[in-house]
UniProtKB/TrEMBL annotation:
Protein name, UniProt field: MFS transporter
Organism: Ensifer oleiphilus
One annotated Gene Ontology cellular component of this protein: plasma membrane
Keyword Zinc: no
Keywords: Membrane, Transmembrane, Transmembrane helix
GO molecular function: symporter activity
GO biological process: carbohydrate transport
Family (UniProt): Belongs to the sodium:galactoside symporter (TC 2.A.2) family.
Amino acid sequence: MTLRSGQHPLTSRLLLAYALPAVVLAALALPLYIVVPTFYVSTLGLPLGAVGFMLLAIRIVDAIADPAIGWLSDRISARAGRRRTLFLVASAPTALGAFMLFWPPDDAGLAYLALWGTVLSLGYTGTLLPYSAWGAELANDYSGRLSVSAWREGATLIGTVCAIGLPFAVGDGALSSPVGLQPLAVFVAVFLPFAACVAFLCVPEPQDRSRHRLSLGDAGRFLAANRPFRRLILAFVLNGFANAVPATLFLYFVGQRLEAPQWSGPLLLAYFVSGLAGVPLALFSARFLGKHRAWCIAMAVACAIFAVAGFLGPGDVYLFVAICVATGLMLGFDLVLPPAIQADVIDQDTASSGEQRSGLYFAAWSLATKLSLAAAVGIVFPLLALAGFSGEGNNSAEALNALSMLYAWLPIPAKLAAIALMWRFPIGEVEQRALRQKIEAM
């Protein structure tokens, strides 16, 4: 596929080099958001409520830094390119923070979690924001952006599968044990710098379409006036919260509700392998139905299937396998389609403002992601504590029922609200083509 306006061809070699860092970033993200809370509570013995509060505080600090990092990604002046340079520099503290957080000393406490959790979160943001903006600018057309997103998110799922499988290859297979996290610490510390260098050397910086630079106040006003973006970001927050709730509670649900902790790794593996299979399905559906309609249908299907999980109890592992596979297919839609829609929404701003500010938009995107994750941890853990739930086990029937309801049913209203926002989304392929023609004529 050849791009217009001097853009580089989207060859398989270029897309592979661009997607490679996503493998490592995903292997980092799974333990950061799913395993670390359980590990620091169950293995290191830290209080459940204190860990939830600390992780919420880290997310808030990180979220405050998002606009600054996004602005820097748009404004940095570097011969190698504004996206590529910041991405490469930020990958080093990300690798270090991952190693320290995933391989803590036996006496690590809340202060240790706060320090290295903050280093990793800020480094991860500094790596991911320019990386995402870089990908949004690699293609100018509606379907080309689907391809870039599919390669990156397919690599993300491969990295997630690696994060799940590595503990089985070298240890006891338990993600939340030291033997499970330590191999991931080494993997991220070694391969993130390598993948970052490959992408930096092999993937060019796209042309900056900015005609002038806006003040920070004007930039904020144009962003706030972008109605398609407001709808998309709200839908993304709602869907992100809906996905973060079961992700946060997954290990507890499998270990204590289903009474099958040894199945946690295989179930996660089934879910994310199914997500990888869902990537081509998402591509096909989006090209036939349009990105936003395909995403809405996938969210509706996920709600219908996942609601059954609230009725499961001890021994219902095989039924839960089927649920994981079916909803995993829908995960491919959640990963591929919203970033591709986001790239189209940025065109709306570039055409109106005259400045290409993908970094600022993906900073807002990142902030929305972190708010949804923070809300999941900050709301769900205290609710579990109020229900009398203990991360160490020996829970009452009422506490386990609360776990099931939060895990399976709390996400559904949020997903339904996201569908309502996106069903009549105003930017499709025809509208996006008109926006690109306006930008290229400027």
